[in-house]
Amino acid sequence: MPTYDLAQIAQHNTTTSCWVIIRNKVYDVTDFLFDHPGGPHVIMEFGGRDATAAYVPIHPSDALDKNIAPEKHLGDLDQTSILELRQAKKNQTKTRDELRVEEAIKNRPPLSRIISVQDLEEAAKKLLPYKALAYYASAADDSITHTENARAFSRFFFRPRVMKNVSGCDTSSTILGYKTSIPVYISGSALARLGHPLGEVNLTRGASKTGIIQMVSTNASLSYGQIAAARSSPDQPIFFQLYKHKNDATAAKRIREVEALGYKAIFLTVDALVPSNREMDTRAPHYLEDFENKGVKRQLDSKDEEVGILGTAGGLIINNDVDMTWEKTIPWIRSITRLPIVIKGIQCVADAVLAAEAGCEGIVLSNHGGRQLEYSLPPLEVLYKLYKEHPEVFEKTEVYIDGGIRRGTDVIKALCLGAKAVGLGRAFLYAQSAYGEAGVVRLVHILQREISFGMQCLGVRSIDQLSPEMVERVDWQPAIPAKL
C-alpha cells in the first residue's frame, strides 16, 4: 500500500477531492460526501486532516468497508506523519468539557452506594461528555411525552393480596422463548461508545453475567460482528433492532448479516422514520462553543440562516424507509429471514391489532422514549387500553413496552396488564457510561431486587401469577411528585 504525508493529504480538502485520515489510514471520501447521513459538511470539517477522534466513537469498525469502495482506501499515513500527529495530540490543550469530565470521574460515587436506577442516571449525567449527554437525554420538543411516559406509572396502584405463600420467589421469564432472569431486556440504543470506550460490549457482557437479553441497534457504535463476538457463548441470545433502509438491497444485506451472526429476532422500528425535533441534541455544538469560549466577547451574528436541526440523532435515521406498510413490508421481511419479527413503536390499539393480524411474533408499545412525536400516548396507557378493548391480542402475540420505567414496581404494573417484558434503553446507557460492565450488572441486580420485593408484597412468587386484578387505575395524581 502506498504511503502519504500530511502535506499531501492537506491538499485534498474540497468537495471535488476530499481525503481524510482515520486510524492512520488514508481514505478518499469524495464520492461519499453527499451520501453521508449527516450531510457533506460533517466530513468537510475534517477534509485533508485527521478525523479519527470525531469518527471512532460513533462509527462501527466495519463502516468504512461497507460505505467506501476498496479503491478509495488509498493507503497508509507515513511514519513521520504518524509521529507528528501523536506529538500534536500530546501537546493539545484539553477542552473545558474534557477537564470537567475528568474531574467528575474522579468524584463519582462508589458503585456500592448506587441503590436505584435514578442513582445511576445522576452519576452518569455528571460525567458524560456534553455531546453524549445531549444525545442520550434529549427528547422531542418540550419533553412532555418523555415526562408523561414516567408519570403514567403513578396513575396505577396495586391491590396486594396477603396470607399467600411467597417463599422461593422466581423473577425469571421468557422472551420469544428465550429465558431471561427478569422480564426486562436492554432496548436497542445507538452510540453506546459516546459514553464509554467499550460501548455495546459492556451491555453484551453485562447481559451475559445477569442472564438478560440485549437488543442491538442498527446504529450501534460497534459492528454487529464485534457485539456478537463479545457474547459469553453462541447460545447467548441477542436481538436486532432494525431501522429499515430505504434501499431494499441494503436492508436485506443487513438482515442476512445479523442472522448469520446468530441474532435471534428482528425488532422492526416503525416510530422513528424521520428526524425529530430534539433541541438539546441540536443545541449541543452551540452550548459547547459558548462553554469553551466563556468570557470571550462574541461578534453579533445578524444573518438569518436556516438552522440545521439534525443533531447527532437526525443523521442516524435520515435514510430510513418512510414508505413501509403492513401489506408490503412484513411479507418482504419474511421473504428475507426466518427470524421472528417484532414491531417496535406501536402507539395505538388499532395498530396493535393489525400487527397481531399480520402474524408478527411480538409488538413493543413505544413512542421511542418520548424522542419522536410529542403528545403520543404513554406506552403504559396504550397497554391499559389494549387490555380493555382487545384482550385477544395478548393471546396472538407477545406484548412488550418501553418508556418511563424506573422501578421494579413499574415493571410489575406492566406485567399485570399483560406485557410479557419491558425494555430499558437510556438506563442501560447511563449505567455503562458511568461504571462500564459493572454498572450494567448493578442495574439488573437493582431491578431484580425491586421486582422480587414487589411480587412478594403482592402475594405472588412467579411472573405468571401477576394479573390485571392486582392493579387499579386511578384518576388522581399522588401528592408527591412522580418521576420526571
Could you walk me through the main structural features you see in this protein, from its secondary elements to its overall organization?
- The protein is built from 21 helices and 18 strands.
- By secondary structure, it is an alpha/beta fold.
- The strands form four sheets. It has an eight-stranded parallel barrel, surrounded by six helices. Strands 1, 2, 3, 4, 5 and 6 form a six-stranded mixed sheet that branches.
- Helix 7 packs across helix 20 (426-435), helix 19 packs across helix 21 and helix 20 packs across helix 21 (437-458).
- The radius of gyration is 24 Å and the shape is globular.
- The model has no long low-confidence stretch (mean pLDDT 93).
Order of strands side by side in the largest beta sheet? 10-11-12-13-14-15-16-17
Poorly predicted runs are none
Residue share in helices? Answer: 40-55%
- Note the gap between the termini: 55 Å
The shape, in one word, is globular
Q: What is the subunit arrangement here?
A: single chain
- Tally of separate helices: 21
Beta-strand residue percentage: 5-15%
Largest sheet, strands/sense/barrel: 8 strands, parallel, barrel
Arithmetic mean pLDDT: 93
Radius of gyration computed on alpha carbons: 24 Å
Would you report the number of β strands? 18
* Structural class assignment: alpha/beta
